[in-house]
TrEMBL record:
Pfam families: Glyoxalase. Gene3D superfamilies: 2,3-Dihydroxybiphenyl 1,2-Dioxygenase, domain 1. It comes from the Bacteria. Residues 12-125 form the VOC domain. This is Putative hydroxylase.
Amino acid sequence: MAPLPYDPPFGAPCWFELSSPDPDAAEGFYSELLGWRFEGAGPLGLGSAAHADGRRVAGVSAQPPGQQGPAFWSVYFRVEELSAYLAQVDEAGGQALMAIPDFDGSAGVALTSDPAGTAFGVLAYDDDRAMQSFGTAGAVHWTELFTADPTVRDFYASAFGWGFTSLTGADVASGDPDAGAAQQGYWAIEQAGNRIGGVFDASAVSIPAHWEAHIHVPDVDALEDRVRELGGDVLAAPHDSHHGRVGRFIDAQNAAFTLVTPA
């Protein structure tokens, strides 16, 4: 897959952020594991932005006082105009969970969910505030939706203009090494001439519905022991998938994340 331009097109992944009860510890973990350098703030002016090869690729932000819980990663997609997008979400059967149309005078943010209740974020902006790399080492390489209702593809086609190509029968990067053998349905997401991710039919496996992003690394197998050394653990050992060798892990704060060495 060719890297996307540094300026994500509308409908493409534009940000990947960890909400953490201990941001300093989280930054230390990912700096040691991935070589990320943290500098400046994320697109909403919160937390710290992670850089790989000098380019902004992700962020870490603190959970609000009194609302601290397990750490978790969130995927954000870029939209052109927030109010128009929210209207499309409503018409397509989704839901707006939170929306700030004018965050700082030049950006809007919303947390929305598809008709099956799977949450994801969107950002509307016209400057260089979000992800600067996609598909390159240290950056997000692939986004993936796990859902028990794969018909939600219709929702995403309406909301983002995505197309889908069936890859059923191929091994899938599901975080469950037995899922590929189960021959579950899998669809690649096509956007602006690029494959940016996939939709996995998780109806027959015990994986809760969620969005996740896969981070490009040179050798995922070599990082398995390093994750444990840093206080994390392995959810699914590295295995072959349709777009590379994939391993699923948790960090030292129990946030799940996925690493991929592209094919």
